[in-house]
Amino acid sequence: MLAAFTGYEIIGKVPAILHTPLMSGSNFVHGIVLVGAMVALGHADTILEQVIGFVGVALAAGNAVGGYVVTERMLEMFKSSKD
After folding, report:
1. Is 34 exposed, middle or buried (0-12, 13-18, 19+ CB in 10 A)?
2. Buried (b) or exposed (e) across 40-72, using 16+ Cβ within 10 A?
3. Sequence-separated contacts (24+) of 51-60 with Cβ below 8 Å
4. H or E element: which one contains 77?
5. H helix or E strand, kind and range, residue 2
6. Cβ atoms within 10 Å, residue 5
7. Tens-binned pLDDT, residue by residue, of the chain (83 aa)
8. Is there a contact between 42 and 50 (Cβ–Cβ < 8 Å)?
9. pTM for the full model?
10. Alpha carbon separation from 33 to 7, 12, 36 (Å, rounded)
11. In angstroms, rounded to a whole number, what is the distance separating the alpha carbons of residues 71 and 23?
12. Where does the record place the NAD(P) transhydrogenase alpha subunit C-terminal domain (predicted)?
């Protein structure tokens, strides 16, 4: 909850022209989260730990892929129509 509020406040103060680089930076962070979730899943011993690790990997992967898709769509907006 605190992270969501902090993120909303920080992103609200960033000029619109810098949103694309900000998205790329957040995709980098999501990649780190994905690697951490995979490491945690690799060290899981019990079924509960494995399930939690799998859910973490699935959510982190979805978040990273979604971020890249949004960034790609934003970059398409900057291309000229002649391409």
Report:
1. buried
2. ebeeeeeeeeeeebeebbeebbebbeebeeebe
3. 60/30, 60/33, 60/34, 60/36
4. helix 47-77
5. helix 2-12
6. 9
7. 888 888 888 878 888 778 777 777 777 888 888 899 999 999 999 999 999 999 999 998 988 888 888 878 877 877 877 65
8. no
9. 0.64
10. 17, 24, 5
11. 6
12. 1-79
Q: Two tokens at 78?
A: 């900057």
SS3 letters across 3-71: HHHHHHHHHHCCCHHHHHHHHHHHHHHHHHHHHHHHHHHHCCCCHHHHHHHHHHHHHHHHHHHHHHHHH
Q: Which two tokens stand for residue 54?
A: 């799998």
